[in-house]
Design brief:
The chain is of the alpha/beta class and 814 residues long. Among the domains are: 191 residues, Isoleucyl-tRNA Synthetase, domain 2 (Alpha-Beta Complex); 130 residues, Isoleucyl-tRNA Synthetase, Domain 1 (Orthogonal Bundle); 61 residues, Ubiquitin-like (UB roll) (Roll). Helices cover 37% and strands 19% of the residues. Strands 2-1-24-25 form a four-stranded parallel beta sheet, covered by helices on one side. Strands 6-5-9-17 form a four-stranded antiparallel beta sheet. Strand 28 and strand 29 form a beta hairpin. The protein is globular, with a radius of gyration of 35 Å. The chain starts with 5 loop residues before the first helix and ends with a strand. Bound molecules: ligand ANZ and zinc ion. The site of zinc ion has 9 residues, from loops.
């Protein structure tokens, strides 16, 4: 007999599948459609274990869905612009393009060796000019619809690398540069931004999409809606009319005993009196070096310095001292807060520290006015004429009206979400398709001139300027409007722009006329399932929703929600139960595992580790366990039946069919729920059962031969190579992956029952109805639970237990 040799069969089938185009999707199909999208990888080199976990199990589901009659669009590509390529260029002198292409080559090999059933005709890469031409088109569409604008804004800056950092390059609690570890500072630059804030309210609406609660919560917090009021505290300073604050508790305005400005607040240098200038300046200098996260840390002591200035409480008319404090963030709200120590804990701590009065204006339920901590609940107003006696909620509304009638403020809704800064002073990205003309100003590159190609021969060394700035051939152009000398924008786009629309491109990857195909996008979207890591919960997943809504409003697509369902995979941990990392030395190289055991074993193993949504821990024994499993499957199917013909008990056939159909139902349901681990466990049980049954006469029946067929079909999504080979060896001529999933006949899954007779020393003590599949242990346990059996064995020693399956249990006692 032929032995199981994964090395030989896997290569053979990968090549055949490729040649036959087995996994090509027919977008104009009349079958039910299923667009199954996985977050495409950054091309970092051959696939690692995390990639195998992210892509292998979903491949199983894609295969299953095809067998269930769906036309499955299951494409793959590469998010191939970005910083690592540029860093490789700087460190090793390899051109980013070369580095990227090499890695993509390795990764595609890995995807092939996985046996991934990705559509062969839809591979895309975002650094391809035919792709980024449409990223640039998207930018221009945003610009034309007033969703992209240029402004002077603050960006993260690494003083050592001398460059702007993308948000993802700022790492850790201390916000350091991920290249050199230097603490990041801020710098003001002319930057392009996308107006994502216009969609803030709609982004909070998850109606009709099936997403993990966790992701919805993260997005909701990221958007950060607050309902409250802007309140103006008038000033007598000649250059400062008033200080505006934002509060979610306008009902507490009369409890304000100080006002705090952010260190960057523009009115601060004006208001500060000469007497306090030195201490305020020293404080501001120090605050500049502390990061936002550090400043806002909950446990952190609230500090500040008095400015010498006073403003007026708009309701009570009382003078209120003005402080500067670093717990106030300049970009949020009005960059200033009214300090209400009685009702806000941060203000309470501040007041304690600087010995400022605490005035209770919302009566606590216990009536106690000697507060140990802020009372942050609601209640009846006091010491707040003319609003005394009102409940907080009514007071909030009335105070809003009262203030706006007097031009002293108004009720507002605020969002924490900021517009999306998309300019990067880097090389390896899509050039921003804008020309700056001294006469015409900002001029978009005409669509017909797209793509604006990235020049190849460029000096990358980080000088603090965009590398493209030093390329006169790139930079200097004629203005498309007036023909005069003009300059291109030399920044490139944030790579998150590239990935904010890629699923549309899979629907028409080579279309030269459009970013996508409208009839395909209407038919195939929204995406049935989008799988990927929780780390993308806010940025990528929020940008994607924003872009979909923007394209919908521009009339380019129908749906504002791109992903009907979203699923997150877990992590594979190393044998030490820690995240795999080179520094810990717990990394497993999937290629070595595949070389030794084959891809079917590797992919099944990662599925067997644990539920896909949770992940699991690597184990070398687990790998050999799966190797043994497939050897067993191989022998079961390939080795001839050599059981002599004999009478076949009807109940053995029933049992065979019952096991089979129970497994069909179980495996299908588990795959749908991403519970690949329990699906494999039930297939293992089935194989054990069949291996035993093979030695009995049932193995000579046609039901047996059918059961071999069913087993191969059930295993096909998990182990595409071995099953294809076994299928062929049985004389089949069309691919196992083009077959229908076995039908589960519910009438066959019903458990048979039998009467278990329990004896003690041969004397019948009890009879039970039990399921036919009851195990010996369960039968014993049930018998021991019987009172009459207990009475019969009491005080005696059980010397032997005789179990006759499906009939009786006899306790021999002395
Ligand atoms: C007075 C007050 C009284 C407040 C009270 C709360 C309770 P969210 O919900 O996150 O929007 N705040 C406003 N602007 C700020 C800034 N730039 N930096 C730091 N803190 C700021 O929080 C809004 C509340 O956070 C505002 O309501 C303000 O404190 C503070 F009993 O104003 B509150
Ligand atoms: Zn011009």
């Amino acid at each position: 007999m032929v032995d199981y040799d994964p090395r030989a069969i896997e290569k053979k089938w990968q090549t055949r599948w490729e040649e036959s185009g087995l996994y090509r999707t027919d977008l104009s199909t009349s079958k039910p459609r299923w667009y199954f999208l996985l977050m495409f990888p950054y091309p970092s080199g051959p696939l690692h274990c995390g990639h195998w976990f992210a892509y292998g199990p979903p491949d199983t589901k894609a295969r299953y869905l095809r067998m269930r009659g769906y036309e499955v669009l299951f494409p793959m590509g590469f998010d191939s612009f970005g910083l690592p390529a540029e860093n490789a260029a700087i460190e090793r002198g390899i051109h980013p393009q070369v580095w990227t292409e090499k890695n993509i080559g390795q990764m595609r090999e890995s995807f092939k060796s996985m046996g991934g059933s990705f559509d062969p005709d839809r591979w895309i890469q975002t650094s391809d000019p035919e792709y980024y031409r449409w990223t640039q088109w998207l930018f221009l569409q945003m610009y034309k619809h007033d969703l992209a604008y240029r402004s002077f804004t603050s960006v993260d800056w690494c003083p050592s690398c001398n460059t702007t950092l993308a948000r993802e390059q700022v790492v850790g609690e201390d916000r350091v540069c991920d290249r050199c570890g230097t603490p990041v500072t801020k710098r003001d630059l002319n930057q392009w931004s996308f107006r994502i804030t216009r969609y803030a309210e709609e982004l909070l609406d998850f109606e009709g999409i099936d997403w993990p609660e966790r992701v919805k919560t993260m997005q909701t917090n990221w958007v950060g809606k607050s309902v409250g009021a802007d309140i103006h505290f008038p000033s007598e300073h000649p250059e400062v009319v008033e200080i505006k604050v934002f509060t979610t508790r306008p009902d507490t305005v009369c409890g304000t005993t100080f006002v705090v400005l952010a260190p960057e607040h523009t009115a601060l240098p004006l208001l500060t009196t000469d007497e306090h200038r030195a201490s305020v300046e020293a404080y501001v200098e120090k605050a500049k070096r502390t990061t936002e996260i550090q400043r806002l840390a909950v446990g952190k002591e609230k500090t500040g310095v008095f400015t010498g200035a006073y403003v007026k409480n708009p309701v009570t008319g009382e003078p209120v001292p003005v402080y500067v404090g670093d717990y106030v963030v300049v970009q949020y709200g009005a960059g200033a807060v009214m300090g209400v120590p009685a009702h806000d804990q941060r203000d309470f701590e501040f007041a304690q520290k600087y010995d400022l009065p605490v005035r209770v204006v919302v009566t606590p339920p216990d009536g106690n006015l000697e507060l140990e901590a802020a009372y942050t609940g609601t209640g009846q107003l006091q010491s707040s004429a003319p609003f005394d006696g009102l409940e907080s909620e009514a007071a909030q509304a009335q105070i809003g009206v009262w203030l706006s009638e007097r031009n002293l403020g108004q009720s507002v809704v605020r969002y924490r979400l900021r517009d999306w800064g998309v300019s990067r002073q880097r090389y390896w990205g899509a050039p921003i398709p804008i020309i700056h003309c001294p006469d015409c100003g900002i001029v978009p590159v005409p669509d017909s001139d797209l793509p604006v190609r990235l020049p190849e021969d460029v000096e990358f060394l980080p000088t603090g300027e965009s590398p493209l700035k030093s390329e006169p051939d790139f930079r200097e152009v004629a203005c498309p409007k007036c023909g005069g000398p003009a300059e291109r924008d030399t920044d490139t786009m944030d790579t998150f722009v590239d990935s904010s629309w890629y699923w549309y491109r899979y629907l028409a990857p080579f279309d030269a006329e459009s970013f996508s195909d409208r009839s395909n996008s209407d038919r195939w979207l929204p995406i049935a399932e989008y799988g990927g890591g929780i780390e993308h919960a806010t940025m990528h997943m929020l940008y994607a929703r924003f872009v979909a809504k923007a394209l919908r409003d521009m009339g380019h697509v129908r749906d504002g929600e791109p992903f009907r369902r979203h699923v997150n995979q877990g992590l594979i941990l190393g044998t030490d139960n820690e995240k795999m990392s080179k520094s810990r030395g717990n990394v497993v190289d999937p290629n070595a595992v595949v070389a030794r055991y084959g891809s079917d074993v590797m992919r099944s193993f990662v599925m067997f580790l644990g539920p896909w949504g949770r992940g699991g821990t690597w184990s070398d024994e687990g790998i050999t366990g799966l190797e043994r499993f497939y050897l067993k499957v191989w022998k079961l199917v390939i080795d001839p039946v050599d059981t002599p013909e004999g009478t076949v008990a009807a109940q053995d056939v029933t049992e065979l069919l019952r096991r089979l159909h129970q497994t069909i139902a179980k495996v299908g349901g588990d795959i749908e729920a991403f519970a690949f681990n329990t699906a494999i466990a039930s297939l293992m049980e089935l194989v054990n059962f069949l291996t035993k049954a093979k030695a009995t006469p049932v193995a000579n029946t046609s039901d047996w031969r059918d059961s071999m067929r069913t087993l191969i079909l059930l295993l096909a999504p998990f182990a595409p190579h071995i099953t294809e080979e076994l299928w062929e060896q049985r004389g089949e001529t069309t691919s196992v992956h083009a077959q229908a999933w076995p039908e589960c006949d519910d009438s066959l899954t019903v458990e048979d029952a039998f009467t278990l007779v329990v004896q003690v020393n041969g004397k019948i003590r009890e009879r039970f109805e039990v399921p036919a599949s009851i195990s010996e242990d369960d039968a014993k346990e049930k018998a021991m639970g019987s009172e009459s059996v207990q009475r019969a064995v009491e005080g005696k020693n059980i010397v032997r237990i005789i179990y006759v399956p499906k009939r009786l249990l006899n306790f021999v006692v002395k």
